[in-house]
């Protein structure tokens, strides 16, 4: 019987991939830390050596971002992630507390389903393969159809490197005929142990609704607050550097700038000096209609595109070719307010508030509208103010004096380097971590007994009352009688 329907072929391919991955994972489970680490290093080296090739493929196939920045992403996903996790214990006994008499034993979760977005396709494959294999897991990738070619090439490169280092071939697999039905089968398959989902909100919700344990991340929509205590020139530079990195395709990138009105003139002047173009009201309205589609989702035509391309698409004819980012003044927040939403492209909203209290309120409003649990950034040289904002922002990451894109993923901060950023319960995510290999293992606990039943019950020795002098003390007599009755029970 020949299967001709794409969805049926995709489902059958997934079933075969998962079955083979499970068999391969059982072989990985018997390996020691040294053997696993050798495989992970091989993946990292292959990703690093092919960073430029894969970046160009991703840029050419998807049309998103800049290949030069995608090279940096691939280097980050391979070299920098590896340097962070290389010495982490993930196999066998990983911890022992002699004082409290407990032992921690790492156990792989099994087969991981790795859902890959089109915005960061090659780097996400390298990163997810490394953290999965580091924990002794197999991984099966579901590629975004618009990035299938570069994802399959990345999988082939890292799989060959891993196999040469002793990895079972089927421990790294990828759907070659991607479909919604195939991805659904991968997520719901009885041999799939965990879903590692990076992508759009609908896909992440589907992962959590599959019945399989999942780690998914919601949308980012981080506001960037510039305080009057900040070095405004440096703050603007960081924001523009961040928002233009790969044309804004990383979800931790800034989506709006929020300031107090007392520094408005200085901030506006610096934005213009550093290549930002402030849209007038007519231009702002025209672009706003182009950012969002009728169904309330972001227009894919603008994702990862340059300012020049966006202006051509939206018929903005007066924007100079030197403009790096487009900035639109905004006073409202809501699902139908395009500038207040996530924009994975070089477009920023600009809010001017009366005072710090208003800034806090506005930033919370933006995040709770979209992006709750993800990332907030601020530029300030006032440590007490940083603490105040950190306490009030409903996010998992508060980044200070750094480009939000690079800070959120752990490239310019000491956060765990990662391309999957948990958003916590408020963001609909199962974790608030930057996802690493320790998120992809279970920890078995060995615990020695340290108390006997009598200690737990609080029983006292039989002669406790022997030294009590009762005399005429009626209260003590009552206490003694009560104890005797309790013991007789």
Automatic annotation (TrEMBL):
Its keywords, alphabetically, are: Coiled coil, Oxidoreductase
Instruction: Spell out the Pfam families in the cross-references.
Output: Aldedh
Classification via Gene3D superfamilies: Aldehyde Dehydrogenase, Chain A, domain 1, Aldehyde Dehydrogenase, Chain A, domain 2
State whether keyword Coiled coil applies: yes
Q: Report the InterPro entries cross-referenced here.
A: Acetaldehyde_DH_acetylating, Ald_DH/histidinol_DH, Ald_DH_C, Ald_DH_N, Aldehyde_DH_dom
Q: Which residues form a coiled coil?
A: 11-38
- Tell me which residues make up the Aldehyde dehydrogenase domain: 12-274
- Could you tell me one molecular function GO term of this UniProt entry? oxidoreductase activity, acting on the aldehyde or oxo group of donors, NAD or NADP as acceptor
- Tell me which PANTHER family the record gives: ALDEHYDE DEHYDROGENASE-RELATED (PTHR11699)
The UniProt entry, under NCBIfam families, shows:
EutH_ACDH
What is this protein's name? Aldehyde dehydrogenase domain-containing protein
**Source organism (scientific name):** Paraclostridium benzoelyticum
């Amino acid at each position: 019987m020949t299967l001709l329907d794409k969805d049926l072929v995709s489902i059958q391919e997934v079933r075969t991939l998962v079955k083979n991955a499970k068999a391969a994972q059982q072989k990985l489970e018997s390996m020691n830390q040294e053997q696993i680490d050798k495989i992970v290093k091989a993946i990292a080296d292959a990703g690093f050596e092919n960073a430029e090739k894969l970046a160009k493929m991703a840029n050419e196939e998807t049309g998103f971002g800049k290949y030069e920045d995608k090279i940096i992403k691939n280097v980050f996903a391979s070299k920098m992630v590896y340097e962070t996790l290389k010495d982490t214990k993930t196999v066998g006994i990983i911890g022992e507390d002699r004082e409290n008499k407990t032992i921690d034993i790492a156990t792989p979760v099994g087969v991981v389903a790795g859902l890959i977005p089109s915005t960061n396709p090659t780097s996400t494959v390298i990163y997810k393969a490394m953290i999965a294999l580091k924990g002794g897991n197999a991984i099966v990738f579901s590629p975004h159809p618009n990035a299938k070619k570069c994802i399959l090439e990345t999988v082939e490169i890292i799989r060959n490197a891993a196999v040469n280092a002793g990895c079972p071939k089927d421990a790294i697999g990828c759907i070659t005929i991607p479909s919604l039905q195939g991805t659904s089968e991968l997520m719901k398959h009885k041999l799939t142990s965990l879903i590692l989902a990076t992508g759009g909100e609908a896909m992440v919700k589907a992962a959590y609704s599959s019945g399989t344990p999942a780690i998914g991340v919601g949308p980012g929509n981080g506001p960037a607050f510039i305080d009057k205590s900040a070095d405004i020139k440096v703050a603007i530079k960081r924001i523009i550097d961040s928002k233009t990195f790969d044309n804004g395709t990383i979800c931790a990138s800034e989506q709006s700038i929020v300031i107090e009105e007392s520094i408005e003139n200085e901030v506006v002047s610096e934005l213009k000096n550093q290549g930002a173009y402030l849209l007038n009201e007519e231009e702002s309205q025209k672009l706003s209609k182009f950012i969002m589609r009728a169904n309330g989702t972001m227009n894919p035509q603008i994702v990862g595109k340059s300012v020049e391309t966006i202006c051509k698409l939206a018929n903005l004819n007066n924007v100079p070719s030197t403009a790096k980012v487009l900035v639109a003044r905004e006073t409202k927040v809501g699902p139908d307010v395009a500038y207040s939403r996530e924009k994975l492209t070089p477009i920023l909203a600009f809010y001017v508030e009366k005072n710090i209290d208003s800034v806090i309120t506005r930033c919370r409003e933006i995040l709770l509208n979209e992006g709750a649990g993800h990332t907030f950034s601020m530029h300030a040289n006032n440590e007490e103010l940083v603490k105040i904002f950190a306490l009030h922002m409903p996010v998992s990451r508060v980044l200070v004096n750094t480009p939000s894109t690079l800070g959120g993923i752990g490239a310019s901060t000491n956060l765990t380097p990662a391309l999957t950023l948990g958003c916590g319960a408020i963001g609909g995510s199962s974790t608030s971590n930057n996802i690493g290999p320790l998120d992809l293992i279970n920890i078995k606990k060995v615990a020695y007994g340290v108390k006997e039943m009598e200690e737990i019950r609080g029983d006292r020795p039989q002669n406790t009352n022997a030294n009590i002098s009762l005399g005429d003390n009626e209260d003590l007599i009552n206490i003694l009688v009560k104890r005797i009755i309790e013991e007789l029970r």
